[in-house]
Write a structure and sequence with these properties.
By secondary structure, the protein is α/β, with parallel strands linked by helices. The protein has one domain: Rossmann fold, CATH 3.40.50.1360. 35% of the residues lie in helices and 17% in strands. The chain contains 8 helices and 10 strands. The strands form 2 sheets. It has a 7-stranded parallel β-sheet. Helix 2 links the parallel strand 2 and strand 3. Helix 7 packs across helix 8. It is globular and about 40 Å long. 2-amino-2-deoxy-6-O-phosphono-alpha-D-glucopyranose (GLP) binds next to helix 5.
Amino acid sequence: MKIIEVNNYQEMSQKAAEYIIDKVCHFPRITLGLATGGTPIGTYKNIIEDHKKNGTSYQNVTTFNLDEYIGLSPENKNSYRYFMNEQLFNHIDINKKNTHVPHGNVEDYQKECTRFEELISKHGGIDLQILGIGSNGHIGFNEPGTSFTSTTHIVNLAPSTIKANARYFNRLEDVPTKAITMGISTIMKSKEIILLVSGENKSEALSKLLSAGVQESFPASVLKNHPYVTIIADKAAVAGLKVHCK
Ligand code: GLP
């Protein structure tokens, strides 16, 4: 695992965007794995700015998102499909048909998991996956205890995750309690992974990721088994590490 330390959120976002843009320029038919949450918003902003300024094209890019809440329609402002449209897809020249987010309002969720997993395989897998991290070490919505062999599946969200994500909803009661997420093995099959970590509230998770052994009780630790992971972390996130190492 390679770690790049940057000064702040803006620098992290810029670095991540530059990396993604460079890949898209070299491999216009790339398949990207995308994340939601507060962490990648700045990266998406930089990608949009570059698209407008330099014309980087996403016409032949395919994307797969990590997860989606169960019970929310694409039109729901809190759904991850809505988030991705608003934060990225509506502002670049990507063909929406090539953007895939698990469907959160279908009759058969199990079938949806199988469809999504198969679709990723059919596209030859993910070339570059962008990840954030939950403070309990979750990646996607793979909560502590998730099997490392898991593929796309239905999850019960941890109370701490529901609480952390409640900031986007009107009331805590409105946060869905279940979601569909790519599994750990789906994520690990990506050819390359970039993990974005920003802010003091993530420093404990980052410290644990780097110091703990690979264990299912801390999902992000599995990334240590991946040959090609780059962590881009800002000073605030890394601060805990330095204290830890003294
Ligand atoms: C959410 C998402 C994750 C994300 C994480 C951190 O629950 N499912 O994909 O990485 O939590 O979110 P944030 O970036 O807002 O801290």
